[in-house]
Amino acid sequence: TSTRANPYHTYQWPGDYGLSLVVTDPDGEQNIDTTSVTIYDDPKAWMSIVRSISITSKLSKLVPD
Questions:
Q1: What confidence tens digit (pLDDT) does each residue in 3-19 have?
Q2: Full DSSP string of 21-46
Q3: Strand 30-39 to strand 15-24: parallel, antiparallel, or no bridges (unpaired)?
Q4: What is the model's pTM?
Q5: For the segment 45-58, what is each residue's pLDDT rounded down to a tens digit?
Q6: Are the CB atoms for 22 and 30 separated by under 8 Å?
Q7: 3-state helix, strand, coil in the chain (%, to 5)
């Protein structure tokens, strides 16, 4: 529940949540809108280190006969 012009909420756990927005005008009339949101886990960085080798050799200039 909030009376802020731009309310926000931080979800602690991933999951599916229902949201409702209730707007009340000065005459007490209300308008309600509902929706759902899916909160996902924080992304996890994945990295792999692969050892590499470098092979060098001397190449001779080949001239066709």
A1: 888 888 899 999 999 99
A2: EEEE-TTS-EEEEEEEEEEPPPP---
A3: antiparallel
A4: 0.53
A5: 887 777 777 777 66
A6: yes
A7: 0, 30, 70
Tokens of 48: 């792999």
Q: How far apart are CA 63 and CA 52, in angstroms?
A: 33
Confidence at residue 44, expressed as pLDDT on a 0 to 100 scale? 84
Q: Which two tokens stand for residue 16?
A: 């599916």
**What digits encode the pLDDT tens for the residues 17-41?**
999 989 888 999 999 999 999 999 9
Q: Do residues 2 and 20 lie in contact, with contact meaning Cβ atoms separated by under 8 Å?
A: no
Report which residue type is found at 46.
W
* The one-letter amino acid at 36: S
Establish how many alpha carbons lie within 13 A of residue 58's alpha carbon, considering only the half-sphere containing its beta carbon: 1
- Any bridge partners for residue 35, and if so which? 19
